[in-house]
Amino acid sequence: DGKGWRSGAEVERRELTQWFFKISDFAGELLEAIDGLKDWPEKVRLMQANWIGKSRGLQMGWDLTAPHAGTERIEVYTTRPDTLMGASFLGISPDHPLARALEAERPEVAAFNAEARKGGTTEEAIETAEKLGFDTGLKVRHPLDPTWEIPVWIANFILMDYGTGAIFGCPGHDQRDHDFCRKYGLPIIDTFLPLEGGWDIGAAPYVPLKSEKVRYTRGFAGDAEQSGEAAVDAAIAHAEANGYGTGVTKYRLRDWGLSRQRYWGCPIPVVHCEDCGVVPEKKENLPVRLPDDVTFDKPGNPLDRHPTWRDVSCPVCQGPAKRETDTMDTFVDSSWYFARFTAPRAEAPTVAEEADYWMNVDQYIGGIEHAILHLLYSRFFARAMHICG
């Protein structure tokens, strides 16, 4: 019912200013290094590879037939550019800049976006949720045929934080797009069929493995009969040669959001100064310690209302400033404690000679649920500590 099972509070998404570790900068390295984890269970290695999620695709612009709210073109990223001729609609996230602009203009768009934002953001939640859309009335021109105009819809299953926050829907070869088009009466077009026989695209999408060879009925690059992998490469080459798109590599891995609005966690050692901005705490003042005299009699983060702990002097100008009251995700501690254990009484975080002797960890005791969090974070921390010396 859209409410918390215990508190009854309405579940809503809010935009917060938060702190992140830029783990995405290490995505390629973390993926490549999986091959060297010879003693790790294959299931864990596969889960991490899928979580990092390297994909090769095409990024291209779809021009609006009439510019709107300062937007002339919508950038789309797709891993299946070979299905470009099967496009039925262009979908944007409720948080896409164009959707935001429409939201400010039209109450019905604002109402749809608000309802869409109540849904879950996990892949599982998106897959199982009802596919909902809003026809904006805007249209874009197809990159391969400027006379072909395609409607722009806002859809609740498109996330802003992957790709560009916009897709072209190809219902003939994607179950989610198929469900959406059947619901809203949009055309369903095939771009390829099995080598032998046909397929009732209207009844169900045809979604073979990329490695499988198929017969392209609306192909525009490569051979008439080719695998999806070969067709994707050919489509990217065609787009780059004709100037309507660029082949790019993207990763599914997102930066690690470590801010928590609660008392229990390592304080984030930064200070907010009106004159100097966000300033890191001086090294000699570390670690920042939590106050012991907190109260939990009111909702929210008790650090926000502590009478003295938050008030400090700016490390730069010595003027009045405020501590950051967000604390760190508890995974931050456990992602490097194995290194600390090698020199538990040292003043420094660890001692290189001791770490060289004891590392690496011989045996990890924990469940498979740690495969894409704790075990991945620890690999990131090892690289971050190496860079920091």
Characteristic key phrases:
Rossmann fold, four-stranded mixed beta sheet, about 400 residues, alpha+beta, globular, 11 helices, about 25% strand, Isoleucyl-tRNA Synthetase, domain 2
Separate helix tally: 11
Secondary-structure-derived class:
alpha+beta
Q: What's the quaternary structure here?
A: single chain
Q: Can you write the helix and strand succession as a string?
A: EHHEEEHHHEEEHEEEHEEEEEEEEHHHH
Helix content: 10-25%
Count every beta strand, where a strand is a DSSP E run of 2 or more residues.
Answer: 18
The CATH class name of the largest domain reads Alpha Beta
Give a quick account of the main beta sheet: strands, pairing sense, barrel closure.
4 strands, mixed
- Which term fits the overall shape? globular
Proportion of residues in extended strands: 15-25%
The mean pLDDT is 93
CATH evolutionary superfamily of the largest domain: Valyl/Leucyl/Isoleucyl-tRNA synthetase, editing domain
Do you know the CATH architecture of the largest domain?
Alpha-Beta Complex
Taken together, the total number of domains comes to 2
Structure description:
By secondary structure, the protein is α+β, with helices and mostly antiparallel strands. It folds into 2 domains: 55-251, Valyl/Leucyl/Isoleucyl-tRNA synthetase, editing domain (Isoleucyl-tRNA Synthetase, domain 2), CATH 3.90.740.10; 256-388, Rossmann fold, CATH 3.40.50. The chain has 11 helices and 18 strands. The strands form 6 sheets. It has a 4-stranded mixed β-sheet with strand order 5-6-4-7, with helices on both faces. The protein has a 4-stranded antiparallel β-sheet with strand order 15-14-17-16, with no helix packed on it. Helix 3 (97-105) packs across helix 4. The two termini are 50 Å apart. 25% of the residues are buried.
